[in-house]
Amino acid sequence: MAATKSSNVRLESSTESIKKPHRIVINDKVESILQSKKNANEIFDLLEYLQSDKEKEVVRGVNACGQLFCDLLERGDLFVGKLPKEEELLEGERSADDKYRMFLRYRYNSCIEQLLENMGHKVYQVKESSLCMLMKFASTEGKFPLQKLDWCEHYSFPRELLEAVVQRLLSDSEDMAMLISRFQEFLEMDDVRYYVMCSLRDYVAKVMDKNKGAVMPTFQNNVFALLSNINMPSQESELTNFMATQGAKHGDWKAAKFKEHRRVFERTWLMFLKYKLPGSMYKKVLVIIHDSILPHMSEPTLMIDFLTAAYEIGGAISLLALNGLFVLIHHHNLEYPDFYKKLYNLLEPSVFHVKYRARFFHLANLFLSSTHLPVYLVAAFAKRLSRLALTAPPNALLMLLPFICNLIRRHPSCRVLIHRPSAEEPCNDPYSMEEEDPAQCRALESSLWEIKTLQNHYHPDVAKAAQAINQPLSEIEEDISKRLELSTFGLMTKDLKSAPSNVPLEFDTVSQLLKGSRDVLGAHFCLE
Amino acid sequence: MGKPQKKKNVADKVRKTKTSTEIKNNPFEVKVNRKKFDILGRKGKHDVGLPGVSRSKAINKRKNTLLKEYKQKGKANKFIDRRFGEYDTKMAPEDKILQRFSMERQRTLEKKDMYNLNEDEELTHYGQSLAEMEKLNDIVDSDSDSEEKGLLSAELTASHFGGGGGLLRKKGPGEKGDKGRSRQELIDELIIKSKQEKRERQTQKEESHVLTEKLDQEWKSIQGLLSHKGSRAQSQDQTEKPKLDDYDMMVRELGFEMKAQPSEKLKSEEELAREERERLQNLEADRLRRMRGEAAESSKKKAVHFSADDLNDGFILDKEDKKMLAYKDGKWSVGEEKEEKEDVEGEEGESGEEEEVEEDDEEAEEDSEDGDDSDDDEEDSDEDAHSDLESEQGSAREEEELEKDEEELPAASASCQLSEEELKAQQEAAKAELPYTFKAPDNTEELKDMLQGHSPLIQRLILERTLKSNHPSLAVGNKLKLQKMFGFLLEYMGELASSKPPELNTVNILTPQLYGLCQLFPAAACKAMQTLLGDSAHGIEETVEVTGRAPFPGLDTLIYLKITALLFPTSDFRHPVTIPAFLCISQALTQCPVTSLQDVTCGLVLCCLALEYVTLSRRLFPEVVNFLLGVLHLAVPDKTTLGFSVVSPFKQVGRNAELLVLNTPEATEGWSRTPLRLSAVQGLQLHSDLEKDHYRLSLLNTCLDLVKRCAVLYKDTTSIFHIFQPIRAALAHLPLKNYPAPLQELHREVLEALPETPAQQLPLVFDKKKPIPLKLLTPKIVQVLDYGKKRGNTKEQREQERLKHKYKKEFKGALREIRKDTRFLAREKLSDVMKRDSERKRKVKELMGSLSTQEGEWKALKKMKRK
């Protein structure tokens, strides 16, 4: 019946649309449906619009449907309770009113389906309006539930609808970051957040299990986008913003409990992190882990597996994992075997060039600020850092050299690294860079010749900083926190700002661009 | 209470009351103080004392002061002195006196005494202050006075000597009516009249005197202006007046004649060369000092450089401007004549004044005149021409030569690129159409309009002429204009470099101009260059922040960096331009990912520049080594077993990690070492695989050579082995057998230059400090040369000792005085008591006496009654 009707309607609408603009036509239809039950079949026309090719029409259709069904919901014109099958609709002995309401309920369901489908539409506007309308339905449904409240403590929340929305948001083929950031505004509401997390957890588990744990970059990206958009409240009293409020007891409702929120949040993250992640995802997670994940977990130590795994990966990911580990070690008494050994092995030439350099050295400074560290360890760190300093850019060097000096200051027995008056014979450097165990690398028997070399660095500040080891170091440690974020341009501005009083000039006269006493460029390049 | 200080003047007073000689001669008054030692030549103050005198003095004094106070003790009434300022301690006594005096004067002025003519104190004579006249500074009116001296007016004589009759008769006809006037009145009138006359004369004289003085003043004020003219006038006077003594003239001439100054010795070639060498050595030493980072401020030596062809004589080529410069009289016309003559001579035999461009022209012309010399002649024709010129310009100065040398080179280079005919034609054309003066451009667009469309050489000519016609010595604003022009020129060069295809040849030719401008205005040049470099670095920084990666800087930035190396000393420890330039290179080498052969080229250009920068100072540039390692890494085909790791901007493995791996091993044939083209930075058109491979080989060749240079440069650094260890590893992985022979040879050389084993080093120790000497406990022995004098180490100590001594003395003296005071007071009190007692006794006695007489009388009466 529906099929035939719809074909008729399409014909009609197409003919009508020639005469009138769509907006007016649509509005008229909504009006007529709302006014009289006779016109109920015009709903099919509206649903038609949702499948239109033209995005404007779709958006208008979405709005119209929204208006229509919200009004119907408020009027209670939709059938409440368990719905019989559509085929059986006419068979049973029901009043015409019931039939009408069931019919509307079916149309409502098909409208939701269509909207969910539209969330995968090409055009962002369509996606956005569909999403908004679905959430509007959700909130109206929350107020006027479509299920019968059969027992009093059960709170009716349109979970199925929300689940469907979340599943659509977590597309495995399309990057939904934009839509998810739009969705964030709904996540501000506490019950929505709670149920989103619940459904997220289940859905992730389902999808990943189906995929046998293989990496799904797009899906996982979407999951991460959604998860990282969740702003957890920090205390119970902040749980005030609810979408569905029936004015009943909040106490028994899980979504109203702060503990439950935390538990679900924790479970969701753990579920997400349980599976193998793409490399970039590790970085993204690790960047936010210490301030937006760990504080909201009821049992942060559960993260230890993930963090350890990340720390073992090496490279930038290990650097980032340090931060989370630090929180666990510092606040949750985590005992991490061979932590310093691993930290030592993280020191690679690339450490000065990665984006997270400042964060890494900030943490390394914290870890190495303990005065209870063995001397061999500190010496190994100092020596390794100074060896690496041979490849570092000047902005890193300006931070690194005081860092090394601070290490020696904290551990006076490391002074032999820069002052060994006993030995008089020249010797080879006994330090072994390849040795992974700081205890075996013989750093204590070595000297920091590398810093001596850096005294001849081209940047005057670096050369000055390196010259600090020529004299006994002063007692007070230098503050490196300001230098952590120093960039090359920042370094340059210092020189650019100072107004020169006297500018020395080259006295060798210039005859040509590529000719001069010290020309190198001219030997390999020509002016063409 | 006591007045401890004995004042000398008081003592004198006391002494004066008696005749001092009398006292001194009285042996009972004198007490001789015994001396312990008799020292020759010392005059003791206290040899002889007069105890009696001093005691009486002291007693008197106490009576005047202490006793009075004592007697006033407990008394409420007091005498108040109401004179002005009597109790005002703040007022100086002089002021007090003055004030009192003026008050006194006011009081006298207030009373209007009509008969007191001499009220005002100033005494005058003829209306002039006597006091001033006494100074006798007015001697001007002596002559005029003499004329009138003794001359009495007719009226006066008449009245004095003609008697009353004449006077009456004279007055009679005019004023008969006032017969009532007495003789006394008439005489008064007369006196008044004569006085008036005198006064008038006096004022007249004064006026004329004032005028004369004013004239004198005015003359003095303009005398300075006319000084030399005056001297000339004087000399004219001298010639006019031959009466002046010849001898005197001779003497004066001899006296004033300037002693003949020894002229500068003509310097020989060797001396000139030596001076030049010394100058360069000085500059070099200065550079080294700055390189070590020592304070360069102390010596404010500035290389006196001017634009490449500036002769610093303000000479300008064009005639209009010449008029501005010309002198007012005589000389101007001479100059023009000379100019005309030169024109006639066809620009030969000019002196050093002529512009350098013209010289170039001449060279060209002469070349053409020389005719069709053989080719090899033509090659050094420039030099020949130059030497010819030099011989013509016998008086060419040293600086000019230097400048000429600067000038010669670009000309020579240009002539390499342009054939002689073309050059000549161009210059002819230029001479024909180019104006001689150019307005200094106000922005880059104007400069571009001015220069664009001309050939490089003409552009240089235009620039030269612009510089000439806007030389700072010509007008006030020119300096600013030229300062700005440096920035414009720099920007223009950047535009030339970034245009497609880049006009690097023009840049090359304009560089000496830039150098000249830079030498003129170092501060402005510094600022302009800083801005450009800063902008470039800022751009890269921002792009990196936004997108995480940035493209390599364009050719214009590379050219700026190159120009920086030419204009500023890159070896300085600290320099406002070169250090940012270093950082610019560093930034590009670490933050710009290498994605194409073009990027590799750009990186290698930057490496070349970096090496240039540090050639002299041999400073460590880790980024260059990192980058070269990365480039070598790009050429390693098998990345599985690497013994090294590369750092940003390179990736260990990845899409672009095999950029320099040869596609076909056969590509080695046909490859020859050719210089790379700078324009490759902007874009590469390599069509076939073979071309690409050849280009890769060229890049590798450059890279290997740079590694070799690096190795040589840093061979003395302590950690050279560790610095180059990764490079050694990378070199070992290169597929050598695919490379042509020259590359293999270079590879071998590089390996030789790199150290095979780490050098043995001494462990680090702190710098040796000068040991602090121990404290010594042996006594300090000071030789005393003059005994008897107070010895002290320092002036302060001596002063302190003196004060301490003085204090002690004063303290003792004060104690003594107080004791004496109390003793005196006690004595006084005692005498008072005694006096009172004796009085009482006397009175008692008197009373007793009277009573006894009474008693006696009464008894007598009684006896009488009884009887």
From TrEMBL, chain A:
Q: Which GO terms describe its cellular component?
A: Noc4p-Nop14p complex; nuclear membrane; small-subunit processome
Residue ranges of the CCAAT-binding factor domain?
318-466
Biological process GO terms, please?
Answer: ribosome biogenesis
Q: Tell me if Transcription regulation is a UniProt keyword of this record.
A: no
Keywords from UniProt, A to Z, are:
Membrane, Transmembrane, Transmembrane helix
- Chief subcellular location: nucleus
Q: Which Pfam families match?
A: CBF (PF03914)
Membrane-related topology note? Multi-pass membrane protein
**What is the annotated localization of this protein?**
Nucleus membrane
* Superkingdom, taxonomy of origin: Eukaryota
Transmembrane segment boundaries: 306-329, 360-382
Which InterPro entries does the protein's record reference? ARM-type_fold, CCAAT-binding_factor, Noc4
Q: Which family does it belong to?
A: Belongs to the CBF/MAK21 family.
Q: What is this protein called?
A: Nucleolar complex protein 4 homolog
Q: What is the lineage of its organism?
A: Eukaryota, Metazoa, Chordata, Craniata, Vertebrata
UniProtKB/TrEMBL annotation, chain B:
Q: Where is this region: Disordered?
A: 137-429
Task: Look up keyword rRNA processing and say if it applies.
Answer: yes
- Where does this polypeptide localize? Nucleus, Nucleolus
The answer to whether UniProt assigns keyword Nucleus to this entry is yes
Query: What keywords were assigned to this record?
Result: Nucleus, Ribosome biogenesis, rRNA processing
Q: Which InterPro entries match?
A: Nop14
Q: Which Pfam families match?
A: Nop14
An example GO biological process term is: maturation of SSU-rRNA
| Bias type Acidic residues, positions | 339-383, 398-409
Q: According to its UniProt record, where is this protein mainly located?
A: nucleus
Gene Ontology terms: cellular component: Noc4p-Nop14p complex; small-subunit processome
Coiled coil: which residue ranges? none
Basic and acidic residues composition bias: residue spans:
172-219, 238-300, 316-338
The UniProt entry's sequence similarity note says: Belongs to the NOP14 family.
What's its job? Involved in nucleolar processing of pre-18S ribosomal RNA. Has a role in the nuclear export of 40S pre-ribosomal subunit to the cytoplasm.
The molecule here is called: Nucleolar protein 14
Q: What species was this sequence derived from?
A: Clupea harengus (Atlantic herring)
Classification from the root reads:
Eukaryota, Metazoa, Chordata, Craniata, Vertebrata
